[in-house]
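FORM 7B - TANDEM STRUCTURE REPORT

SECTION 1: FIRST PROTEIN
SEQUENCE AND TOKENS:
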Amino acid sequence: MSAQDTVEKKKRRRRRRRKDEDVEVEDAVEVETEDEVDDDEDDDDSASEENLTVRKGRATPSRRKRQAEATGASGNVLTRVSSGTVEYFQGVMAELRKVHWPTRDEVQRLTVIVIVVVMAFAIVLGGLSFLFTELFSFGFEDPIILGVTLAVLLVLGFGYLAYTHRQE
């Protein structure tokens, strides 16, 4: 096989691809009837003999996109909005059918976990709130207590930063 033969084969493939793309764009505008689908099945045998890809008999995702672009927006504003809304809810229903819903036992177990975690955090945050409220009420009465507490908190904060930086 020479280099010239390889170049010729590539040219033939490109021409065949361009021809197939032109046919697909024309198909995007036309709507196939069942008789045409039956005719396509007969053509599929001849296509496989020529080592071409067999048609699926339905639009593939990329082909659907080209069909939508070729047809463009049809109808008035009201029909486009209503059809868009209907498509949206059909998509929502399709996604809801795919959801794996938890069993009753799983729901109860997870609910208990959530309630326990929420209560624990509520107690911790309530305690911190009470602590700081008391601290500031004493601090406004005696500024020395407030200053010492803030200094201790700063030292503890810088100590924590130094400790974590050392571990890295």
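SECTION 2: SECOND PROTEIN
SEQUENCE AND TOKENS:
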Amino acid sequence: MIWLQAIIKKKNKTKERKQNLTFVFQKYTGNKPVAEFMNSKIIMTSSAAVLAAAAFIFTFMPLEFLRYTNLESTKTAELLVQVLGALYFGFAMLNWMTRTSIIGGIYNKPIAVANFSHFFIAGIALVKAVLYNPDLSYAIWIIAVIYAFFTICFGIIFSRNPITEKEPA
């Protein structure tokens, strides 16, 4: 009889866990705001758009980009800019495809980490370049601000739980 009671207890605990999990996902899919502080769909969509625009420029207009930034236009530089465009296109597609998913905390952590590390590392390099060389083009200043903005947003997404914890009614 003890084994029967143990099975019944285990079934009750499993049922209770399923109810709690169902409540969490019903809350997300019920068109309620998942987190009051930030909507990750807006951040993912806007970062996908920014990265796709950069990918388009780097992939299809590498020589124009190199000339605009006053860099030497060699075949190697052109190839590297096109490879960078491919990288940006990959990130843009990743963000676009996951924009409707729950992101933050333990949910889609690799995507949050990848975006945060990309924007953080590039953002630090851009801000450092702008601070040490204020004569840089305004385009570089704008890109540095955009990267700083996405660094903060993905840092928040990475470090916070997207689902507010409330007891089921």
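SECTION 3: OBSERVATIONS ON SECOND PROTEIN
Residues 2-29 form the longest helix (28 residues).
Residues 31-37 have pLDDT under 50 and may be disordered.

SECTION 4: SIGNATURE
Preparer initials: ____
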